[in-house]
Amino acid sequence: MNILLWIGFSQSLFAALLIATKKNNSVSDKVLTTWLFLLAISFLSTILSVKLFSYPLLSNTFLLFNPAFYLYIKSLITKDFKARWLQLVHLIPFIAFESTVLILRIPLTFNSILSGVDEKIFGAFLIAASLGSWLFYLTLSITLVNRYRKNLENEYSNIATEYSLGWILFILIFYVVFCIIMVALGIYSFFTVTEMTLLHTINFSVLLALIYILAFYGLR
């Protein structure tokens, strides 16, 4: 697991630096660069939690990934899209969650969110925040892409027209399928009392694959 985390950290950081320094950066490149930097931080924070506490802390990368995914798609298909400081508001749920987990040192186990009354309350907020984030940002993303697809000839894209729709549909379908699989695995793990480390490993493995995909297209 540690090897996977170090690879994810180094590759996301390396890809972010490459895209940030390439010529003629578009606004979508800047959004992608920020996304990759944040992913690098997410990988690094997991590594540090293991080093500091000898066990991985509870993590919810979807609270970071969902808004980043939506903003990236919006930057690709929205005319005159601009990156603004106000958009950092989307990161508040992720920062609040990670800070709470760090302060309370909540380990990556089902018991840590389901054993006591306080833990159950936290677990309920975790599930509600995760499902709310998925539904909100995926709905917005699908709506944007559907509108763009119907009005492709009149819409503006920050990427080449011949690749725009195919690329956007690919990452949208990829991510929706990923979310559905993770929800299904989460439900299965809960009822079969499977260790959450398995979900953790699958999550970061897919994120690593997505880093390569995003980096390849971003550099291309």
Shape: globular
Q: What is the terminal separation in angstroms?
A: 30 Å
Please report the total strand number as a whole number. 0
The share of residues in extended strands comes to: under 5%
Q: What's the helix-strand series?
A: HHHHHHHH
Biggest sheet overview = none
Helix-residue proportion: over 70%
The domain count comes to: 1
Structural class: mainly alpha
Number of H- or I-type helical stretches: 8
Rg calculated over all Cα atoms: 18 Å
Mean pLDDT: 78
Task: List low-pLDDT spans.
Answer: none
Describe the structure.
With 220 residues, this protein is mostly helical. It has one domain. 77% of the residues lie in helices and 0% in strands. It is built from eight helices and no strands. It has helices at 2-21, 27-53, 62-77, 92-104, 111-114, 117-150, 161-192, 196-219. Helix 2 runs antiparallel to helix 3. The longest helix has 34 residues, at 117-150. The two termini are 30 Å apart.
Q: What are the main properties of this structure?
A:
single chain, 220 residues, mainly alpha, globular
Summarize the structure.
With 220 residues, the protein is mostly helical.
List the helices and strands and how they pair.
Blueprint: H1 2-21, H2 27-53, H3 62-77, H4 92-104, H5 111-114, H6 117-150, H7 161-192, H8 196-219
Helix pairs in contact: 1-2, 1-8, 2-3, 2-8, 3-6, 6-7, 7-8
